[in-house]
Amino acid sequence: PAYADDPDKVDSAEATVTWTPVQRIIALASYGGIRERRNDLTAPLAGGSRKTDRDQALGSITFLVGKRSSITASYMYYQNKTDETLTFTDTAGMFIQEGAVPYGDRAQVFSLAASQALAEGVLVTADASRSYSKGNFRVDGTVPGTTGIDTLSDLKVVEDIYTAGLELQFGKNAGSEFRYQYRRYDDRIDDTQDGRVNTALATLYVKW
What we know:
Strand content: over 45%
Distance between the termini: 49 Å
Number of strands: 9
Number of helices: 1
Mean pLDDT: 89
Largest sheet: 9 strands, antiparallel
Strand order of the largest sheet: 1-2-3-4-5-6-7-8-9
Shape: elongated
């Protein structure tokens, strides 16, 4: 590998399938996975190994309601797991290693989206999603002073996003879009990180 943190070996796989179980219903499922391995980590990591597993899956179902409307429900799952040797330096400048330190995070997203064409060139959209995210990084404390700090080592977040939009088409060469989004961030470990964001966007485009 060219760099100290590059893997020696990478295996990956991807698969996607779509089908129509019944008329006016479209289903999609996909998966992607990566496995990375690195042995004999070099300076500045001073030896050891790293193993990383990543997985991502997506599933959705779209219902075609009449000729101008659709509703899509989807679910996404993501996880990342890493076991890695960490190198610490003591007060004398000597390296101290701790092997197989675990780091992991996981996210799940549930969403629902709908669209309605009110007329030719007029489209109304709306979607809502909720995500659940968890993460953890914890050394076992065999190296003095390396026990984890909860607000830095653990993650537990719930995020809600609501969006509404209106798209207008003025002939073939011009159009406009109006969009509003509300986002709520809820940190279940550290309340000082909680927040809400309101965003409004208006655009006008012309092609020539």
